[in-house]
Design goal:
Among the domains are: 1-55, no CATH class; 136-269, Tetracycline Repressor, domain 2, CATH 1.10.357.40. It has eight helices and seven strands. It has helices at residues 57-114, 170-181, 185-193, 197-204, 212-216, 219-233, 235-242, 261-269, and strands spanning 21-27, 30-37, 40-45, 141-144, 159-160, 166-167, 248-251. The strands form three sheets. Strands 1-2-3 form a three-stranded antiparallel beta sheet, with no helix packed on it. Strands 4-7 form a two-stranded parallel sheet. It is elongated, with a radius of gyration of 36 Å.
């Protein structure tokens, strides 16, 4: 049998520094051992002192420390893998978006080339700023988005139109005109009674008879009209728009066909309008 470390009797105390196990406590056939090492007390269970030899515990503690370090490294590796997976997903999403924009540009160029005859200026085929990434614009730009942005369609401010109807935001106006376009009077009532932009969006998603192809021909003019009414009725927002100067205004919307902000700025620069 391997050499056992000397230990005290039940309930006793051993002052010999060679002794690492100070107490054996037999309760219901479970063996509790109190280890006193470097003034730290640790409890362990189910060790049979007659089977498991207790050598000097310094090496055992080192091995435990190494195991803990390995576990910590494994956890760090798992966390890094999760971050890489998230980054990869974002990269794939961005590539899909870029691919979609490239297809749109190619389709636009093909249509324009098909309509050309004879000599033409190749430089005129450059894509418009609407399809250019923000880092390729080549000039200062302002990113519009969020319910707290005065330029955003979600910004809540009372907007009365010529018929006397008051809308809580441009989005209210836009969705109301959408329901009106498809003759959904019930949706029109719900939109005017809504308390938030989110409620309006829910109603707009349930407009009877909605047709994407038909609305795509109408939506840009409706969006521009709503923004113009907001600038006409809210002087401080109109002045804020004029102060942007010649900066490019980029709208952070999933639907990119909301109207050209440059047209809105030109409209407000006219003294008779704003």
């Amino acid at each position: 049998m391997p050499e056992m470390v000397r230990c005290c009797t039940l309930g006793g105390m051993n002052t010999d520094p060679a002794c690492r196990v100070t107490t054996f406590n037999f309760e219901e056939q479970n063996i509790w051992i109190t280890n006193v090492l470097n003034d730290n007390i640790e409890m362990s269970q189910r060790f049979d002192p007659f089977v498991v030899p207790f050598a000097r515990s310094d090496q055992l503690l080192n091995e435990i420390g190494w195991i803990k370090a390995d576990i910590a490294q494994m956890r760090t590796a798992v966390a890094l893998l999760e971050i890489e997976k998230y980054t990869l997903r974002n990269g794939i999403h961005k590539l899909k978006a870029i691919n979609s924009r490239m297809k749109s540009r190619l389709s636009d160029l093909e249509k324009r080339v098909d309509g050309l005859k004879g000599d033409f200026d190749v430089s005129s085929l450059d894509p418009s700023e609407v399809y250019v990434d923000y880092d390729k614009i080549g000039k200062n730009f302002i990113l519009v988005g969020g319910a707290q942005d005065p330029f955003s369609a979600y910004f809540e401010v009372d907007i009365p139109d010529k018929e006397g109807i008051v809308y809580r935001s441009v989005l209210f106006y836009y969705c109301y005109k959408m329901a009106e376009y498809f003759n959904d009077t019930e949706a029109m009532k719900k939109i005017l009674a809504a308390k938030s932009n989110r409620e309006v969006e829910k109603v707009a998603n349930q407009i009877d008879g909605f047709d994407h192809a038909s609305w795509n021909q109408k939506k840009q003019s409706v969006w521009e009209a709503g923004q113009r009414i907001k600038f006409e009725q809210t002087d401080w927002i109109a002045k804020l728009l004029v102060c942007t100067g010649n900066s490019y205004i980029a709208v952070a919307e999933r639907d990119k066909s909301k109207g050209d902000p440059a047209d809105l700025r030109a409209y407000c620069n006219a003294e008779e309008n704003c």
